[in-house]
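We modelled the chain as a single entity of 311 amino acids. Its sequence is:
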Amino acid sequence: MSILDAIGNTSMVPLRKVVPPGCASIVVKLEWENPTGSLKDRMAHAVISRAEEDGRLKPGYTVVEYTGGSTGTSLAFVCAAKGYPIRIVSSDAFSQEKLDHMTALGAELTIVPSEGGRTTKKLILDMIAVAREMSEQPDTYWTDQLNNHDSIAGYYPLGEEIWTQTQGKVNAFVHSVGTGASSRGIATVLKRHNPRVRIGVVEPAESAVLAGGAPGPHKIEGVGIGYAPPLWEPALVDEIVSVSTEDAKEMTRRLAREEALFAGTSSGANVLAAIQIGQRLGPDATVVTLMADSGLKYLSTDAYKRKPAAV
């Protein structure tokens, strides 16, 4: 038995209060039950294990990655469990909790400055450039999450869990796009079971590039990189939904207060998009989405940190 065996088999619960009348049943998978509090543990385990199996990652190598935080935390967790040093490129655009968590797990951090704490295409490309330079050192394995197809397979078990837990009665699945690996992996499995399952993906309204819009800065961490990610597979997607940062934050706070579901901002965006699709599908349908990570990763951000009321 290893701590890595704790990854997966997360719970699923229906939303009770934030769903409007006439909407489909909205069911959420609690991915914060994974060891680091994020669904990214699934891809990190797959990426490291597959690289070990085919020799790209050897004992004594150092792992390198660029990340908004959750992927880096998950990789640092897997590397700690397996005994690999890890160097991570991140930014002040992402929560202090994520940066601290990576460091606590033994990661060596390099911080790339952002434009006012916002995620932009330039920031992502700058982070990639720093990681690419690090990867040129000897005895290094660069996981390169935006281009690593191993991460897609890491989400196949999540798709199977959704199919099993809903007893095959899932009409739609909805999730935000960062690298595109999680929605692609899950969609591949669900459509293999039933090609009629509707797949909806979510992106920030301020940077709605998948829907043909212009890139722009936003503050929904971990999603919306400002261009179509290389792993993006539009053939699997039936619908693209845009959600603004402020609407995502407000739904995130509502989920905590009204549903006792303490999640990150992308989870708020997921629920808003799931409701939008669910209202069209009607009350007899079931829509599944993800609580992608824990609200504990965002306590210092304006998603939750509120100024005290004046006396």
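As a brief sanity check on the tokenised model: The first strand starts at residue 12 and ends at 14. DSSP finds nine helices and ten strands in the chain.
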